[in-house]
From TrEMBL:
Domain BTB: 23-96
Record-given protein name: 18710_t:CDS:1
Taxonomy, superkingdom: Eukaryota
SUPFAM superfamilies linked: POZ domain
Pfam families noted in UniProt: BTB
Length: 106
C-alpha cells in the first residue's frame, strides 16, 4: 500500500514559512518605504532554488550570530512573497495578484 501526503507536506512547509520558527536567513526586500524583512531557512532555500544555492554562498551574504542576511532591493515585497511561498509550498496563487505584479514574476 502506498499513500502520498503532498498536500499535508505543502501545508506544513507553508506553516513553517508563516511562523518563521528557527529561521537562519533574513532577506530585506524592496526599496525606500516599500521594504519588508523575510525570515527563511537556508536549507529549504538551497534545496529548492539554484539561485538561492548561489546567493547563500559565503561570497554573497553576511553571516552574524548564525543568521545569514542579505538585501534584495530589485524586487517588490509582494512579488518576493509569492516566490518564497512557491519555494516553500510549491503553490503559486495569482488569483488576487495585480497584473503588474504578475508581469514582475517573469
Amino acid at each position: 500500500m502506498r499513500k502520498e501526503f503532498y498536500t499535508t507536506l505543502s501545508q506544513d512547509f507553508s506553516q513553517l514559512l508563516e511562523d518563521a520558527d528557527d529561521y537562519n536567513v533574513i532577506i530585506k526586500v524592496g526599496e525606500n518605504a516599500n521594504t519588508r524583512n523575510f525570515f527563511a531557512h537556508s536549507a529549504i532555500l538551497r534545496a529548492r532554488s539554484p539561485y538561492f544555492k548561489r546567493a547563500l554562498s559565503d561570497q554573497w551574504t553576511v553571516k552574524k550570530d548564525g543568521i545569514i542576511s542579505f538585501t534584495k532591493s530589485n524586487i517588490s515585497p509582494t512579488v518576493f512573497s509569492l516566490i518564497l511561498k512557491y519555494i516553500y509550498s510549491g503553490i503559486l496563487d495569482l488569483t488576487e495578484v495585480p497584473g503588474t505584479d504578475c508581469l514582475d514574476l517573469l
